[in-house]
Amino acid sequence: MPRSWVQQITARALSPVHKEVLDLRTEVEQLRAELQSLRRQTQAPGYAVDLLLGAQGRRSTRLISESRLRELAAQVSRVALAPDAYGHLVQAYRTLFELELRGVGRMAGAPGNVLGKLATTPLLDPPNGEILEIGTLFGMFAGGMARQISRAGLGYGLTVVDPLEASTELVVRENLALAGVDPSRMRLIRGRSSDRGVQAEVADREYGVIILDGDHSAAAVAADLRFAERIAAPGGIVLLDDYTDRNWPGVQEAGDSYLTGDTRFEFLGVVATTAFLRAQPIPAVITLPKEDGTGLSAARSRTGPAPAGNRLPRPR
Ligand SMILES: C[S@@+](CC[C@H](N)C(=O)[O-])C[C@H]1O[C@@H](n2cnc3c(N)ncnc32)[C@H](O)[C@@H]1O
Hints:
Strand order of the largest sheet: 3-2-1-4-5-7-6
CATH superfamily of the largest domain: Vaccinia Virus protein VP39
Largest sheet: 7 strands, mixed
CATH class of the largest domain: Alpha Beta
Mean pLDDT: 90
Low-confidence stretches: 296-316
Bound molecules: S-adenosylmethionine
Radius of gyration: 30 Å
CATH topology of the largest domain: Rossmann fold
Number of helices: 9
Structural class: alpha/beta
């Protein structure tokens, strides 16, 4: 049907408007596509980072906020008298990430707890690189500590003790190998720290670092502290794991009660949920605690810090 003159005039008048509407429509489509692509670009890294560090498929997240890391840095600085703790925590975070990515299983605990232990221990300048971990689980944290001791410029030697009920010898050895621990510089002692045979084997040397993370009952923690007292090198560092963890009240109960007694352990402070102690040199004659907690007088010759003969130059 032919268009009326009114329609023709209207169409002619509106023609530029139509063109403008078409142009705008095209532009909106282009912007929509661009927006979608930008959204994909911003969401994908967040999602991928969450896949690598988030809680999906694992027990607890490895994501940590800057404010939490700075709060930890303040704690490490107080305990280790190290003003530059933040950078050490950042480096420890990369170690945690790398070891868990490569290993079988996990390190126990929230990231703050793991990082606090990894970063604080070398800053406390242990007197030698002999590390004892009571309660190793998958062996992954022990591998991280060996790495940190190397970073402190010390040659590490690693002794781990565990009854291996929640993991296996194969897994512990694989994790230590994946962490780069030399098999000739580590020993895995299967059993409980309270076992006399285990203690005899462990007590053949003085340790610069002792990590108590086995049986968390108050009685067992007290027994581990008594044992640690006998085998810690002068100046040695003892980590009392989960000290302020409300899930394990026995740790703090035993630790506090132990430290009020006759001990050469000095309380240095708490980072995240770990208490750090330092063993004072053993005086020439000292009353060492017996396994039943009573005193035993003994003549000892260790009176000063161990010579740092095996100390390597500090890598930067
Ligand atoms: C919390 S997990 C250790 C986690 C490990 N230190 C880490 O940071 O990944 C506790 C471990 O202690 C071990 N354990 C329990 N009682 C023990 C004992 N009396 N002596 C040695 N290890 C013990 C358990 O088998 C378990 O593997």
